[in-house]
Amino acid sequence: MTTSAFWKATAERMVRTFAQAVLGAVGADQLGILDVDWGQAAGVGGLAAVLALLTAVATAGVGPSGPGVTETPTGRTPLSGV
């Protein structure tokens, strides 16, 4: 948790989670792009990003690292015949 790779991967997860939550909130409204309450959508995304941060900190050191875009999974063998 004290490495720059951990924080880089965590930041990536937070940004990805924020974007997914905002898109989900906008899509759930089924409104035109101009009718969206962007403050509320950003609030939902912000909460999701904070939860992603807390999840990363709580699970630091548990299981194998990865697979984020900025991470390379280690110690894994590819599935054969799949």
Which overall shape is indicated by the principal axes computed on the Cα atoms? elongated
Give the helix tally. Answer: 2
Q: Please outline the major beta sheet.
A: none
- The proportion of residues in beta strands is under 5%
List the helices and strands in order.
HH
Helix content: 55-70%
**Distance, first to last CA:** 34 Å
Spans of at least 5 consecutive residues with low confidence: none
Query: Which class of secondary structure composition applies to the elements?
Result: mainly alpha
The counted number of beta strands is 0
Calculate Rg over CA atoms. 16 Å
Oligomer: single chain
What labels would you give this structure?
elongated, single chain, mainly alpha, 82 residues
Molecular structure report:
Helices cover about 55% and strands about 0% of the residues. It is mainly alpha-helical. The longest helix is centred in the first third of the chain and has 26 residues, at about 5-30. It is elongated, with a radius of gyration of 16 Å.
Outline the fold blueprint.
Elements: H1 4-29, H2 38-58
Question: Brief overview, please?
Answer:
With 82 residues, the protein is mostly helical.
